[in-house]
Amino acid sequence: MILENKWIVLEDKVVFGDLILENGRIKELHKKEPRQDLPVEYVMPGFIDLHIHGSNGFDAMDPETDAVEKMALSLVKEGTTAFLPTTMTQTKENIDRALSNIADYVLNQNPNAAVVLGVHLEGPFIHKGAAGAQPLNCIIEANTTLFDHFQKVSGNQIRKVSIAPDIEGAMSLIEHLKETGVVASIAHTKANYDTVVKAIKAGATSLTHTYNAMTPLHHRDVGVVGAALLHDELNAELIYDLIHVSMPAAKILIKAKGVEGVSLITDSMRAKYMTPGIYDLGGQSVHIQNNEARLADGTLAGSILKMNDGVKNLIKTLQLSPSMASVLASLNPAKQLKLDHLMGSIEVGKLANLVILNQDYDVVHTIINGKVVL
């Protein structure tokens, strides 16, 4: 397959030319003089969503065995070519069922759908004082034995765990996650700065939906947000729907950490691609109105953000270049999972997981393993 006369978004620049794909990989890149007589189309590396609960009426926690597949099929519409279906704080039985379903699907994935790279376990090891939309009655202390059980049920598919470092047992679990090659991500926490530093030393390398459900920056204790700004060891997730995080806050985050320190996520729930109304999230009713997802008390409950809209927001409100936005949406997530040798940027030899966008950054086509799936 040849993608002709495209603006090809590389890690550090955008070039005009042709991209040749063969056997599911990027075979050649040929630069040439730009054509002004053609509509502008960008080729970006496919987006990788590290934190997503649901889409198109389906959720990773659903009991139906095909829920994750149906999620994955919908995600190609926004240019997402790979993702981590994300569980939430629930009973052990419900988490077991979700992990088992995902484990089964991973063994026989639909080639026309976004690729499941593993599982993001969000909770149940979080702080009750920063639960957000996570059910309070299912929150428990950090437990290495229980995590190992979850990992076994998942078929060793858990790649990332969101955990509060200030709860009982957290540091031991963070150390265990590091030892077993799982990303420990600080989340839903009331921790002070010193506790975050301890978590970093124990092995934490990520921050879940930065600014949300964590201690804010304060001049006497800079809290979790301040630790994120100061410590390069932490890669910061960002829900950039202009609802969860304001433009100035996102600008501060990227200015402090650089584009290499932030990963774009959606944290979307099942109502994405659905009409406004009331939807379930972990047994709680979420009200969808004005592109916002909130519990009845007004608490934000995930988003309905699409990855290409997040990229569009980065470019149009923060004036990031397409290359910079691509680093946040593709390369940094791939690096976090240690998969950047295979995906996350456009390089000869890497998998042909790509998205073609028009000049308004709307999705024209999505390509997975060299196959056009949208």
From TrEMBL:
Belongs to the metallo-dependent hydrolases superfamily. NagA family. Its EC number is 3.5.1.25. It comes from Paracholeplasma vituli. It holds the Pfam family Amidohydro_1. The gene is nagA. Residues 42-373 form the Amidohydrolase-related domain. The keyword Metal-binding applies. Keywords: Carbohydrate metabolism, Hydrolase, Metal-binding. The keyword Hydrolase applies. Gene3D superfamilies: Metal-dependent hydrolases, Urease, subunit C, domain 1. One of its GO terms (molecular function) is N-acetylglucosamine-6-phosphate deacetylase activity. This is N-acetylglucosamine-6-phosphate deacetylase. SUPFAM superfamilies: Composite domain of metallo-dependent hydrolases (SSF51338), Metallo-dependent hydrolases (SSF51556). InterPro entries: Amidohydro-rel, GlcNAc_6-P_deAcase, Metal-dep_hydrolase_composite, Metal_Hydrolase.
